[in-house]
Specification:
Length: 282
Amino acid sequence: MTTASLVSPPISNFEFLASFIGKRTGIVLEPEKAYLVDARLAPIARQANFASIDAMVGALRLGSSPQLERAVLDAMTTNETSFFRDAHPFEALRLEILPDLVEQRAKQRALSIWSAACSTGQEAYTISMILREHFPQLSTWNLQILGTDICHQVLERAREAKYNQTEMNRGLPATLLVKYFERQGIHWSVRPELKSMVRFQELNLIEKFPPLPQFDVIFLRNVLIYFSMETKRAILTRLHSQLRPDGYLVLGGAETTCGLDQLFKRVSLKQSYVFRKASLPS
């Protein structure tokens, strides 16, 4: 066996990107998603004055530009969201989850809700509107709504809390638009009383969580579908530690914990279904 035969062949640019993105975000990029890489990274290459995506990947391989790495990672995360997206989970929150928690937390007078992978913030602001509209008795409670995401750019937009007309037309009732938003040129801005209810923080779900409070409700919708089974299990284990014993975990309509672990059990509600901590045998 010659020395040359021991040298591994260089990996392709797609293989490098798949490994780079997977290690940083947990997102699994299969070869059939090569078109998605081209579509999302071509604008980044142009903005950074690279002649091509391949030239940009060459610079990424050097590992000398944290700014470029951040731009690539931000571009490859999926940031699809809207106000009251899919409706049913928010109906369940209003009609079943919150009434139960308000009763259970009457002595503590405190509630904490986490919108994980919150993107540009519409989910977190939807939750705050539900609280203000339907639970006025909570105005004197200690309410915490936390929105987190791995993407720096979308978090900046969430904090700014300004949305264009197309974003406003996606799921937001006209009555709530008038009540909780004010027109600023071609955008709509979240009113201060609503904006002050939500705090945003950068957080990578595949890494050890920073210090966080215990939550009564955790929303993690349409996110687990992007991860490997091993990564899903690790995330669910960390979520389990952050959820109060009688809390609620809300996943996407096509997502489940079944076959992943025994930490959660699926519970059917009238409007939707949620996951709660399972009672495991000792």
